UniProtKB/TrEMBL annotation:
Signal peptide: none annotated. Residues 6-48 form the Ribonuclease H1 N-terminal domain. It comes from Dyadobacter helix. Mg(2+) 1 binds at residues 87, 208. This is Ribonuclease H. The gene is rnhA. It is found in: Cytoplasm. Endonuclease that specifically degrades the RNA of RNA-DNA hybrids.
Length: 212
């Protein structure tokens, strides 16, 4: 089955417009402060969207999530706004992985890394958490970190990425990053809680790349 074309609208970036290739879109937003972009399933939707305000679509997405969310058990409650959320994206076609972290209260991106060749989503989620911990340590901050990956959270607690991925020349940089991350966990303590993002009740992880 042919891969469905996505249309990426960039309202704010190095260049604005509609892009059909993610890498071209990424070139406009990666490392650009307060970049504004969103994917659409059709050119008609994208053309209509670019004529309107980015925040309209953010608000619509949040409203749709609220409508579809279930009653939140008292044991789960609401997410802590004064926190950061991390997530990773893995391209099934290329095997490329990247990850990012955002400040939950504002949605502002704190860091973005990648893409890295021949990695996995779990590795990206693990590296994102450790990156977040190191970032917060430099800021002398005790903010909690949210991740929607139980696997990555367990790896961080064990201070070891239990990946079955095989080392190749293409993904050697990823394994080097894993070693540095594990070494950082082994030699540093931190006050930050690592919490599970409850997608079922709260909607999509704020650090999600929006390519589903």
């Amino acid at each position: 089955m042919a891969k469905k074309t996505k249309f990426y609208v960039v309202w704010q970036g190095r260049q604005t417009g509609i892009f059909t290739d993610w890498r071209e879109c990424e070139a406009q937003i990666k490392g650009f402060d307060d970049a504004q972009f969103k994917s659409f399933d059709s050119l008609q939707e994208a053309e209509a969207a670019i004529q309107r305000n980015y925040w309209e679509f953010v608000a619509k997405k949040e409203a749709a999530q609220k409508q579809s969310m279930k009653v939140v058990p008292a044991s789960i409650g609401k997410p802590i706004k004064n926190s950061i959320a991390v997530d990773a994206a893995w391209n099934t076609a290329t095997g490329d992985m990247e990850y990012q972290g955002v400040y939950l209260a504002t949605g502002v991106r704190i860091f973005l890394q990648g893409p890295f060749k021949d990695a996995t989503n779990n590795i990206g989620e693990f590296l994102a958490i450790v990156h977040g911990l190191a970032y917060l340590q430099k800021k002398e901050s005790d903010l909690p970190i949210y991740s929607d990956s139980r696997t990555a959270i367990s790896w961080v607690k064990k201070k070891h990425a239990n990946t079955k991925l095989e080392l190749t020349p293409r993904n050697k940089p990823v394994f080097e990053m894993l070693q540095r991350a594990e070494r950082w966990l082994a030699t540093n303590s931190f006050p930050n809680k690592i919490l599970k993002w409850e997608t079922e009740y709260w909607g999509e992880n704020p650090a999600d790349f929006g390519r589903k």
